[in-house]
Each structure stands twice: as C-alpha cells, then as structure tokens.
Amino acid sequence: MHQMPQCRAEISRSHTVYVGALIRLAMCAGLNRDASGPNMDPVDCQVRRLLWHQICCLDLLTAEGQGPQPVIRDDEFDTRLPRNINDDAFDRPDNKSVPASGWTDATFSIIRYECCMVHRLISRQRLATDNNGQTDLRDLKTVQYLVSVQKLRIEHQYLQYLDEAVPIQRCAKLVGRLLTTRFDAILFHQYSQFDVNLELQTDLRETLIESCLTVCECAVALETDPELAPWAWYAGAHHQYERSIFLLMEIHRDPYSPHANRINRILDHVFGTYPNMGSRERSRRLLQILAEEFNKMTQMRKVKTSQSMTSDNGSSSPNDLSGMVSTPEDGQQWSHWQPEVNYSHGYNHDLPPVNSGPWWPIPNLPGMLCDPSGSQHDEYTDPQHDEYGYGMGPGHG
C-alpha cells in the first residue's frame, strides 16, 4: 500500500530497491503461489491474488523506469488473476459462482493486471524473436498476432461493458485503452531505430505512430477530464508521455504527415504552447531543449563514450558526445544542433492547450470495438490455461 502512491510518474533507484524487497517479502509469504482450494477462504484467496498482481505491476513499472529486467520471473509464480466479482458477493453462499463479465468492484484492477500479463508476454516473445541481433519478419508478425488476440479478448471481456457515463468506468476504459494500445509501442519501438527489413520499417512506422498518438491522447484525457479528477493523481503511473518524443521526432522527419494536427495538439499539452513562435521555431526549440537536458544528464551521470561508438578522430572525452549521438550534418553535440524543418503545409497555430479546453474523448481503436448489434461471444472465449505461457490463465476459480 505504501509503494502504490510512491511509484508513479517518477521512478528512482530507491523505488526499485523497495519494490525488490517487497517482492521478496511477498514470496516469503507465499503470495506467488495460488492458494485456491476447497479449504481456502474465498476472501483470503481474492486478497492474495490482488496483492500479488499489484506487486507484479509495480515490478514492471520500476523496471521500465530504471532499465533492468523485472525481478519476477515467469516460472516463479502461478497465482491466478482475481475473480471478477463484487466484494459483497463473498458474503453470499453462492460466492463460488462463475465471475461476472460486466463491471464489478474488481474490474478496474483486473484490467490493469491483464495488461501487465500481456506486457510480460511481449517481453518474453520479443527476446525470442531476436537471433543474433537479426529480426525475422515472420516471427515478429507472429508475436503481433498473439498480442492482437489478447487485445481483442480484453476489449470484449471487459472494456465493451464499461459505461462512459459513469466516471470511474470511463476512467477504467481510458486506462485499459491506453495500456492495450501501448502494446504495439512496446513491441515495435526498438525495431524502428535499426536497419531492419524495409517492409518491416514501412508497416511498423505507421503502427507506431498510431499507437503513440492513441496512448498520448488517452493520457491527456485522464488528466484533463474534470470528472476524472479524483483519479488523476495516479495517472502518471500509467504513462509519462515518453511517446511524445517519438512523435516530436516523427513530425520533424515528416512535416507532411497526415497526423500533424494530432501530434501538434499533444505537443502543445506536453511542452506548452508557444503563441509567438511558428511551428518551425517551436520544433527547433523543443529539440534543442531536449538535447541540452540530455547533455546535462550524461554529464551528471559521467557517461563516457564507449570505444566502439567513438568518432574516427579518436576523441574520447567524457564531455564529448559526438561519438554517442551525431547529426547527419556535422557531427556536433546535441546541445549545439538546431534542426531545420521546412513546413510547407499549414499548421494550426490557434490550437489551445488541451487542458484549457474540453477534455479529450476516449479514442476509438479501429477493429477493436464490438458491434453492439451483433453477437458478442461468437468468436471469443476466455483464455485457456496456457494462454500467457505460464501454465495458467486468468483466475476464474
């Protein structure tokens, strides 16, 4: 309970140490082993599952913030997901009935835990697709298919039942939409920065742009919707706008992008508006600020250029970043580089900051939403025992 409000927007090494200690304590208490059985109290079983999967979420959050792999390994736990039932159902004699499909007291948490499990699946499968640094397009497409199946299942099993007229359910739907859309960014981001198959690059760039846009739009909506203010304090645990950097670089790379207005609205919210500055100057200024902050960070951490990344002139000064990051023009340090962007298309200078206007609606995902007029369960079933590869599925027992 203490670590939940601590691990939000900013994650330090101290958080990683505390969460690591929490994981060991939880394992000593046996939370990593499912305690379902005829003699197990249903309330105790539900609480243990809730606690363990919240700890798994904290483990992923600190791993993302500080870089090391998650402490919890796939073979170290078999705890099922909590049952999707209301708390008062445990007071009734039929509390062992099949969990509900709609909104319950546990749905919000279960959505996050389901997404955490898929995140672990992506991490494991992504490592398996790398063969000596080479990415096989077919393997990557296979992983994308597996992830898409999980996204559809989460959408049909949980998100489609949430009523946007109820604030807490709208918040849960936004968080679920953010986390499921984020899967593509987690899976493909590293491949967009290397020389991989050209067909892969073409497909992945558009997928990445759409994923980053939807993730950022959901994050903005979580912060700006006045009815979601009671839960806004925890929004930073779901996203820290790191995807906006990719969008900034994308609009710098392709000023003619059809997503330009959406990207610029997000940049206005994240970095603030520049009313007296055109789009060209704004883009240059933002990149310069980011480069300066990167330069400061590397100097504070005393990051030295590795020998393999040192430039041909043999410079290896700790303050010389030319071997680490260079521009196509002259190899200057980032702090002295001012990119030139020629915008030949119109940019809406009158876009207001997002947080001063109406809140953003929940973005729709093409191909993800259910058809309200059709059958909802014809093609989708609950995950099987080995759905995630852990020899278990979501806990319905």
TrEMBL record:
On whether Aminoacyl-tRNA synthetase is a keyword of this UniProt record, the answer is no
One GO biological process from the UniProt record? Answer: DNA-templated transcription
* Principal subcellular localisation of the protein: nucleus
Which residues fall in a compositionally biased region of kind Polar residues?
305-320
Q: Does the keyword Nucleus apply?
A: yes
Q: Where in the cell is it found?
A: Nucleus
Residue span(s) of domain Xylanolytic transcriptional activator regulatory: 15-88
This protein's superkingdom?
A: Eukaryota
Q: State the protein's name.
A: Xylanolytic transcriptional activator regulatory domain-containing protein
Q: Which organism is it from?
A: Alectoria fallacina
